[in-house]
Amino acid sequence: MKLLVLGGTKNLGRHVVEAALRDGHDVTLFNRGRTNPSLFPSVRRLIGDRSAPDALATGEWDGVIDMSGLLVHDVRRGAELLRDRVGHYTYMSSIAVYASKITPGMTEDAPLLPWPDGAPEDHFTMDLYGPSKVRCESLLEAHFGERTSAVRSGFVVGHYNPDFGNWGEALAHGQTLECAARPDQPIQYIDARDLAAFLLRLTVDRIPGPFNAVGPSTTMSTLADAWRSVEPDPGPMDWSPADDRFHLPHDGSNDGTFQLDNTRALTAGLTLRADEEIARDYVVWVQDGNIPPPPPH
């Protein structure tokens, strides 16, 4: 299958490209050529910016996996160029799209955030992150109809990814595991390899619709126990540090965001690794000399 990956050389995108190549697909990358430019030397590259994607003006692909669609203006421009030259468009969205942050068990049909009146489509602020993802999902559906998927995910764990990297480092070096969230804080995450495989599956099989691509909801303390179990003598837990990783309020005002219903994704073929396997692989990766990237914000 001929696949176009927008992004593809950072964090989750690396896993997507690795999975696609492993499955024998013909991959083309479109990005600015600034992040890890030496990765995937055998893959065709189109160099350009999302805001002016002239390099995408020609060519046809069976599917697109959009890992870098953030600004509404940029996603709209790409959709206009690609609408009649791709088979299926899979968009990496976010669990930040939901209007409620406290309702447990939300499905993909739960109310979404509105677009603020007068908000710019070509400028990003954190306040616009969730609304931007909603607006991008909507415009892609308008352009591609049943030929589009939106994958809503939150914390993504694994090689090259920052989430829970501090736990991996602590376990690898016998240090204290720090977490500023409440011990009973609900949490959902997903291994980057599982998410990459799901993105690829939706694209290859042309499965439409939005999907909550998250693991089962648990608590931070239960998750910490699972991670600590992979080492014979793990360091202690510290629940008191400053919150520079999770940004989860202690008052419960964001608890529903990490209690989403993932039934639709599981039915569509999402498979999930056990927490212990995720933790063990991350620890080994760090012990092999790799350093988790810093949190994005």
TrEMBL record:
InterPro entries, A to Z: NAD(P)-bd_dom_sf (IPR036291)
Protein name in UniProt: 2'-hydroxyisoflavone reductase
